[in-house]
TrEMBL record:
Residues 9-78 form the Cyclic nucleotide-binding domain. Pfam families: cNMP_binding (PF00027). SUPFAM superfamilies: cAMP-binding domain-like. SMART domains: cNMP (SM00100). It comes from the Bacteria. This is Cyclic nucleotide-binding domain-containing protein.
């Protein structure tokens, strides 16, 4: 079977590494309302969204899950698979029908161990995404909680 072609999200990886990762990709779909994963469960896969949207959420005792971020086309869903203990820090739910590339985490980690240069490229790719999301979360928190015209706290 031919590997699916990579979208813009994976173009942050060098071409040879991108092609290697795409060889283990499967094309999957989720209906609206499907849970992709639950907080504190084993992080055994990750996705790059082709179409649709996914909410990342956090359990709040006595309340509905709080939406932390909404991800869309060409965005990575799931990074906890890369870091021990390989458990999800958040939950995820499809908020519209979703088509995505799905990657088996164990296979991806094995590829990283087999080729340290590939592993470093994947770690830098995921790290860049995490850094971007942390900056975005900081901005959202400042918008919500900083006094008007005040100085940031993060």
């Amino acid at each position: 079977m031919n590997a699916p072609s990579a979208g813009p999200m994976l173009r942050a990886l060098p071409a040879a590494h991108r092609q290697r990762l795409m060889r283990i990709a499967d094309e999957v779909s989720f209906p609206q309302g499907a849970r992709l994963f639950e907080e504190d469960r084993t992080a055994d896969r990750f996705w790059v969204i082709r179409t649709g949207t996914v909410d990342l959420d956090m359990r709040v005792p006595g309340r509905r899950a709080a939406v932390i971020e909404t991800l869309g086309m060409n965005e990575l869903v799931g990074w906890s698979w890369l870091f021990a203990p390989h458990t999800w820090h958040l939950g995820a739910e499809a908020t519209s029908p979703v088509r995505a590339y799905e990657f088996d985490a164990a296979r991806a980690r094995e590829l990283c161990r087999e080729d340290p240069v590939f592993g470093l490229a994947v770690a830098e790719w995921i790290g860049g995404i995490l850094a971007h999301r942390l900056r975005a979360a900081r901005s959202r928190l400042l918008d919500l909680y900083a006094p008007h015209g005040g100085v940031g706290f993060l």
